[in-house]
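Figure 2 data, in text form.
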Amino acid sequence: MPENPHDALFRQTFSVPEQAAGLFRSVLPPAVVQRLDLATLTALQDSFVDAALKDRETDLLFSVALAGRPALIYLLLEHQSTVDARMPFRLLRYMVLAWEAFLAREPKATRLPAIIPVVVHHSRAGWTAPRSLQGLLDVDAATLAAVGEHVVRFTMVLDDLGAVDDAALQSRALAALGRLVLLCLKHARDAQDLGQHLVRWAALVHQVLATPHGQAALVSVLRYALAVNNQTSAQELRRRVAELGPKAEASMVTAADLLRQEGRKQGLEQGLEQGRRAVLRELLADRFGELPAKAERHLQSADEAELRAMAHRVLTAASLAEVLQGRSGAPGKGRRRRL
């Protein structure tokens, strides 16, 4: 499955330590920034987002020196249209997984690195849920104060892009690309006239183009804008971008071409997968008769790898359940789930 366009742009931009450092300087409390040595910021390869949530968030993990000691900054982008009220709990799970990954790398460690959780959020409504884990606990304020030292407590750093005006975003201490990406994350999905926004951001666009690899970076931003915005036609967007100069217009043409190529490739892959699904359905019906609704749902939800595995089992399996679930038909292997 192709990467979500929000994820792709965010990861491409902020997995670069210099860009991430600018974001952290802008959103972390000044007292924390003073204790961080952002020159040591290093992106790690770990990712802890649940597979079921990949369509609405992406994460980046960084190591950094905090007051001379090793620490981690966990950066999460949340881009669903509604707020997840249990976000602090999910963050706690991700933080535990990050600590487990650290201990796997450092099995002799007796102390854990501090983890600073940062959430960048861009929904239509803005953030309305608790920011702290203690805010999710089902106790009154007086009881929470009484048990405070005995329960897990933390408050995530929240960058709610919808609550930050454009002037403030443009004045942040980030590189031009980082500021342009944040503005696009805020506006591109819902803007009625996205081209007009880009014209207002002309100074940022020109700053991006003036950097090494700036044209390639602008291609990524424009490809994202084309992918997520259904309010502005591609022709109108190109007309507006042309006002920003020939380099910007060339980036727009390249972005549109890439998006068309990706669309054709995705359509071909989806066609092949549907073909495999249809052939497998016929084979299953030939061997086991008409498929029950539960089996049909299983077949429809299977990914390409699972379809291939079922195709290998269909010729030798003793039952439909064995094909769909990979269960053996031999006695003593456990009870089969009925379909």
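Caption note: The CA atoms of residues 19 and 178 lie 6 Å apart.
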